[in-house]
Structures are given as structure tokens and as C-alpha cells.
Amino acid sequence: MTEHVRNRIPFVVVHDENRKLEKCLVMGAGHFGSCLADHLADLGNDVVIFDKDPEPIASINKSHVNEKYFKDYPLSTRIRATTVLSDELLRSSTVIVYSIPTQAMRVVLSGLKGRLTPDHLLIFVNKGIEASTGKLPTEILLEVLGEPYVSNAVFMSGPTFSEEVVQRLPTAITAACKSPERAQWAQRTFHAPHFRVYTSPDTVGVCVAGALKNVIAIASGLATGQGFQNNARAAIITRGLAEISRIGLKLGANSLTFVGLAGVGDLLLTASSEKSRNFTVGYRLGKGESLDQIIKTLGSTAEGVETTRAAYKLVQKLGVDAPMVTLMHKFLFEGMPMEDALRALVTREMKSELYGWVAPEELASGIAKL
């Protein structure tokens, strides 16, 4: 056993004979990309982090600190950083982690077409829906790279704040892939005592939950900024989960995904914590700041803003009852006053709580198998 400290909570790596050390390429030196690169490096993997922005790349190479995003936390000395995505780097990498915003996914993947092989383990940790098309990450990957890339790709999501991961605080996440073997490969690569990885075959459900929880988080932050307290926040999160589930089930997702880590786990975290970028956007909107000013000063990407635009198109296409998505779109992009949006939400017609929800016997049967 080896103990790692580096001025944060110590953890123990158990040297598992089934764990093969990988050559990992992490695309994106933002908050989440950096913390995952650090995690993978501390597990003994060879890690290169790529980003077009020279600022974090230079500081990582110079001082092993990402001055732009994680200036308070030294990163592993095993990490190398680069602004050049060379063919040699791609060929030599066995695991490629995509941690660039979903809105750039089509362009970035198009640049990789013909430079990847199905042998690469592609892991996508971005969360969102493409604003211009309403496509999920699974669909974008299929359209750009095709089969077998999409069937072999892993989509990871769950309640994972970057600062807690980089501090080695206990975390759990879902790794979804249509191929059980690929899901287990990702699991073996990332799993640690403080970073538990659970596998799932439901790539669609994981992507839907990961994207739409950001919309609900903005709504929760908005209500909190307006002075609403815990009762309202709990109601927004719970009814938001029902909304996410209706959309996901319409797209063929497994209902159990929404009561798991990628579903209620991630939603609860993102929609109830001041550490959440999307909650912060909503909170500042509730305090009267403009969306343009918030985006300029946030310091990182809050994917829920563009996801709201895309999600609205999606629910219109699917014909799904999604009042929070609809009202957040009207507020953010159609000029609806904040007070009217909040009033419309609480004065909707009376409904059954289980309307549009999974059948109780199906849910109970599924939960019993967890």
C-alpha cells in the first residue's frame, strides 16, 4: 500500500493486480478535467492534460499548480500538460477523457475523426445538450464518429464537485456504457477507496440526468436568491426529478437511473449547494444581476444556461410536460419577468404527484434489485 498526502486528506491506494496502469489523455484543463487528471495520476497512471488555453497549461508545467482553476491545490507531478494535440499523443494514449463543454463537442470530435481508433477507451464527463440541435452527447458522438465508437464509449456522471475530488473527499460516480467490458475498464481505471465507481448500461439516462439537473439547479438558485428557503428548494428538486425522469423515459432511459448517483444524487448536489456553478447563476439572477454580467464574471462554464435553450427545444419535440424547463427558458431567453416565472410555477393546475411517473410496482421492483 502507498499513502499519498500532498497537503490534503490522505488516502490509501490498494495495488490491485487487476488494475492495469494506463496512458491517459485528459482533454480540458478546467475544474473537472484538472481534478480527474490529478486523480488518475495519483493512481499511478501516466497522464497528459490538453487544453488550447496556454495559461493553465503553462502553470501546470511550471509549478504543478493550475493557477486558473485550482491555485490552492498542488497537482500530481506525474501530470504533463500541452496545448498540442499531436497524432503521436493520441496514438500512445489508451484512455481519453473528454472534459470540454458539450457545446464544443461536435467541433472537437470532428477534429479527431480519423485520428482515433475503436481501441481507445473514450470517456465523456461533459454534461449538457447541444443548443443548436438538441442532441445529447451520445447522439453527437454517433453522428460524428459513428459505430462502434458510441457503443464502446463510457459516459461518467454523478455528484462530483471538483474541489472535493481534488481534496480526496469521498465521492461516488456512475460509469455508463453499452459494453459491460468497457464500463468495467473505466471502473478499474478510476476506482479508489475515496472515489467509488459504479457501472451502468444506461448511457441515455446518465446523459439526460447530467444535462437537465443543471437547468433545475438554476431554478433552485433563482428561488433561493429571491428569498425562498428549504421547503421551496426541496419541492423544486423533487419536482425537477420528476420532470427529468419524464424526459428520460421518453428517450428510452431506464427509470432506475434517475434514483441513482447520476440522477437524484447529482441533482441534489447541484441544486442545493452554493458551490454549484449553475446554482450560483440562478442565485445571482435572483439577486437582480443580469445574465450577461454573471457569465462574464463566473470564471468557468455553467452549462445549464445553454442546456436550458436546448432542453426547451427537446421537450417541445417530445411533447413532454416540463414546466420548469419551459419557464426557465421563458425567463432566460424570452424576457419573462422573474416574478411572473415564479408565480407561474406555483400557480399551475393541480395534479397527481405520480402523473407521468414510473409505475409504483416497477419502481419498487427495481429498487429492490439495487
TrEMBL record:
Signal peptide coordinates: none
Catalytic reaction equation(s): sn-glycerol 3-phosphate + NAD(+) = dihydroxyacetone phosphate + NADH + H(+)
EC top class named in words: oxidoreductase
Keywords linked to the UniProt accession: Glycosome, NAD, Oxidoreductase
SUPFAM superfamilies: 6-phosphogluconate dehydrogenase C-terminal domain-like, NAD(P)-binding Rossmann-fold domains
GO molecular function, one term: glycerol-3-phosphate dehydrogenase (NAD+) activity
Recorded superkingdom: Eukaryota
EC number in record: 1.1.1.8
Annotated substrate binding sites: K127, R277, N278
Positions contributing to NAD(+) binding: G28, A29, G30, H31, F32, G33, R277
A Pfam family annotated for this UniProt entry: NAD_Gly3P_dh_N
Family: Belongs to the NAD-dependent glycerol-3-phosphate dehydrogenase family.
NCBIfam families referenced in this protein's UniProt entry, alphabetically: PRK00094.1-2, PRK00094.1-4
Protein name per UniProt: Glycerol-3-phosphate dehydrogenase [NAD(+)]
Organism annotation: Gonapodya prolifera (strain JEL478) (Monoblepharis prolifera)
